[in-house]
UniProtKB/TrEMBL annotation:
It comes from the Bacteria. This is 2-hydroxyglutaryl-CoA dehydratase.
Amino acid sequence: MHTNYTSDMKKDHLVLVPSMLPIHFKFLKPVFEMNGYHLEVLETDNDNIRQEGLAHVHNDMCYPALLVIGQMIDALKSGKYDLNHVALAITQTGGGCRASNYLSLLRKALEQEGWDYIPVISANMSGLEKDSGIDFTLPLILRVVYGALYGDALMWLKNQVQPYEVHPGDTERVIDEIVDELIGTFETGEYRKSKRIYNIMIDRIKKVERTQEKKIRVGIVGEIYMKYSPLGNQHLEDYLMQEGFEPVLSGVMDFALYSIENGIIDYNYYHMHAKTHYLYQLAKDIIMRMQKTFRDAVKADGTFTPPDDFSEVIANGKSVIDPGVKMGEGWLLTSEVVSLVKSGVDNVIMCQPFGCLPNHIVAKGMTKKIKEEYPQVNIAPIDYDPSASKVNQENRIRLMMANARLNEQAKQEKNQ
């Protein structure tokens, strides 16, 4: 019998959260603490995590599920935590994929270890678990949304600076300083002055001393965990930078907008959410206006390339894939690839868990069609799995890099 997390537990239970977005998750702990919760993001990264995952999750299951559950079991076995006063939090997007089983798999793993008394919290918007025990008040939701937006902005700027920094570590140091200062604004309410905050971010980050060399940009798309999690994708962003490339990743709020847009599509296609569909449109408009503040700040400064407007991302994929394709990353993944190509990023890595049916259809399955429309695109679909060796993955990426360099050289010779 599993244990539910209840609101009275927040005073004496530490909530453990698996890692995914290194910058964004720096905001999670303080934001939840301001609302009375004790939270810790697990930042462990070792082979034992994969071994614990394999010991508790069948290897035919989703690789992100295996890693997330392995990371939690590894933490619980570390001796660092009081198992009578700890809870586990897990996010679930739901939908037609194996990720819908995360919660039951985690509870099964806890039962296997005799820890079924440890409560599990499911953060989802798909009705998979209706009683999470966390009281999502408006102040908490606002802080989480702004934390995600600021995380997106810092990640976007970081990837345009770190590959060029003259003194290694400068970019990370400046970002840590900005995050520390931002956390204080979440306490005072100043965090909502986003225009001012974005200008400060841009001004501080552009002062990092960097070289003037031009590096080839490589887009990263894929299943949400594999796309962002260094534990999942073998530190892909760092690897690309080490090899002399500039990684390009869209923000996680684009995935939130994708989920909201799907609610609108459900109404347009099937007349679902008849009474609430206007709320989807309202949420979409609000988030897109919030994103526009950052985009406008980047354009006005002129130092960095601004991110795409999400309305353009929606439009870009329609010539290649129908918006009714909503399983996994659905039309979003294909639309992101087309948006990357249209913005001059011709080299793309698709990160996907091995055997992920939705992502294989919208990633590998759409590659031929994308190439027919954009012949210059250089796409490398990379499978991640406990049985896939890092060397094999890197060799596939190296082949993509070699093609990218040849294509860039041919382009320069043509322009001379």
